[in-house]
Write a structure and sequence with these properties.
Layout (H helix, E strand, L loop, with lengths): L1 E5 L4 E4 L22 H11 L17 H16 L3 E4 L5 E5 L9 E6 L12 H16 L8 E6 L7 H7 L4 H4 L9 H7 L19 E7 L4 H4 L4 E7 L1 E10 L16 H18 L5 E10 L9 E10 L2 H21 L3 E4 L3 E3 L2 E2 L2 H13 L4 E6 L4 H5 L5 E6 L15 H20 L2
Parallel strand pairs: 5-6, 5-7, 7-16, 8-15
Antiparallel strand pairs: 1-2, 3-4, 4-6, 8-14, 8-16, 9-11, 9-12, 9-13, 10-11
The structure holds glyoxylic acid and manganese (II) ion (2 copies).
């Protein structure tokens, strides 16, 4: 018996002799196609060794040795799953499987395996390893898809969806020259991973060139767990603005300089941080704003801070709202600076565009999940994802599974194996149903 044809819920056995008729088979039992959850969990645990940190999570920051090692491991898993593995000029990893109809556009499934510093073992990893598991299941069950199939592990998602941006929109010099969390510029980092930043156009894909992109991810918030819902169907992914703010005052003796004569850059920073919180919370909505890092110079008990730099981040589903908050903060910073004779300057903001997922994909994911007996909730994503970049070139769909206690970007990030299994089976069945055109 051979299996030639994928049906969404079962493998259809066909005659070994002619490959077409269904008649001579004594056992016409239908076998539901399911992922092997234990294999995903084993792979998650093995991947977590690369960049393992003492708090129980990982620091597998893009462009570091740990990133390189994690990528090697993932590439081996892809080869074991029968995928033809290559990297594009931006160093995205691509595992390819032929489709039976080469005239069709490719069906992409993926995520990322880089992490934030002191991150957890689930963000990106669950989606990447489940995408590989889908490929492994297809290979094991001898299921041929009509579409060419690609598992993509995007590079440097945490540094601003760099790899998926390169694939969809291309990378500008401003971004290539920016310094990533590894300490390397993005340009040098791409080279470090074996890509070629001078040939990025070769890996860029045109709008309309893919059939669909699907990504499974942990929710990274606590809504699904609180509401006891199995699967989140993502309706849209927030846009993200980053800008470095420098506040220049005057460093002077902390004992001899009277309070009215100080130009304390850290005091201005404190007032600015408070304004970020007020401006973001003044209007209704789900917008968020954060100052996530701060550097104080020279940084001593007895010196008034002369220069402060800090990282401003703003997020919302509406680009206009993000820019409105940013412009307001910029204009108010002049006033804050004037209060104690300090000056604010902002780097040109880097913006990851917000994106809506395809409504057809939302419907498909929702109905697949319901057919599998899972409860669903349609929800926005407050975290950034590669899917928002790939949405520029084709329909995208995202599946969320619960994050326990809503913790993410931290070592205590955790999703239950049963939830991961549900998510991976929704991913598999969505691939099969999309491929079959249902
Ligand atoms: C990516 O995880 C982000 O939302 O920053
Ligand atoms: Mn992620
Ligand atoms: Mn993340």
């Amino acid at each position: 018996m051979v299996y030639i044809h994928a049906h969404p819920m079962r493998i259809i056995p066909v005659c070994f002799f002619c490959g077409f008729c269904f008649l001579p088979l004594p056992a016409q039992r239908s076998v539901p196609v399911r992922v092997q959850a234990s294999r995903i969990m084993e792979h998650l645990s093995a991947l977590s060794q690369y960049g393992k940190n003492p708090e129980g999570g990982v620091s597998r920051v893009a462009y570091t040795d740990a990133d390189l090692q994690g990528r090697e491991y993932a590439m081996q898993l892809m080869r074991d799953a029968g995928l033809e593995v290559s990297t594009d000029a931006a160093a995205n990893i691509i595992g390819f499987r032929q489709g039976s109809d080469p005239s069709l556009k490719p069906l992409l499934v993926g995520s990322h395996i880089d992490s934030v510093p002191h991150g957890g073992n689930y963000d990106g990893d669950v989606g990447s390893l489940s995408a590989i598991e889908v490929a492994e299941t297809l290979a094991e069950q001898h299921i041929a898809l009509r579409h060419p199939f690609e598992v993509v592990i995007f590079e440097n998602e945490e540094g601003g969806t760099v790899g998926s941006h390169a694939m969809s929109a291309g990378l500008e010099d401003k971004l290539l020259n920016s310094v990533s969390a590894s300490g390397k510029t993005v340009r040098d980092g791409i080279r470090f991973l074996g890509g070629d930043p001078d040939k990025l156009h070769q890996g860029q894909r045109q709008p309309g060139s893919i059939a669909v992109y699907l990504e499974l991810h942990i929710e990274q918030g606590g809504i699904l767990e609180q509401e006891k819902v199995d699967i989140g169907v993502v309706e849209g992914i927030v846009g993200i603005l980053h800008s470095d703010v420098t506040i220049t005052g005057f460093a002077n003796h902390a004992g001899t300089t009277p309070m009215p004569q100080r130009h304390d850059a850290l005091l201005s920073a404190a007032r600015f941080i408070e304004r970020v919180n007020q401006i973001v919370t003044e209007v209704p909505g789900r917008q968020v704003g954060t100052v996530g890092w701060i550097k104080v110079h020279p940084g001593a008990y007895n010196v008034i801070p002369g220069v402060v730099t800090l990282g401003l981040e703003l997020r919302d589903l509406d680009r206009g709202k993000i820019l409105e908050m940013y412009n307001r903060l910029r204009s108010e910073s002049d006033q804050i600076g004037r209060m104690n004779g300090t000056q604010f300057s902002f780097t040109d903001p880097i913006i990851v565009e917000p994106a809506l997922t395809s409504s057809d994909m939302q419907k498909l994911i929702g109905s697949v999940a319901k057919d599998l007996g899972f409860t669903t909730k349609t929800m926005p994503s407050g975290a950034g994802h590669d899917a928002q970049e790939i949405a520029r070139i084709g329909p995208s769909g995202m599946i969320f599974v619960p994050s326990i206690n809503g913790i993410s970007h931290a070592p205590k990030e955790f999703s239950r194996p049963d939830d991961i299994e549900r998510g991976a089976n929704v991913l598999l069945q969505t691939v099969l149903r999309f491929d079959a055109g249902r």
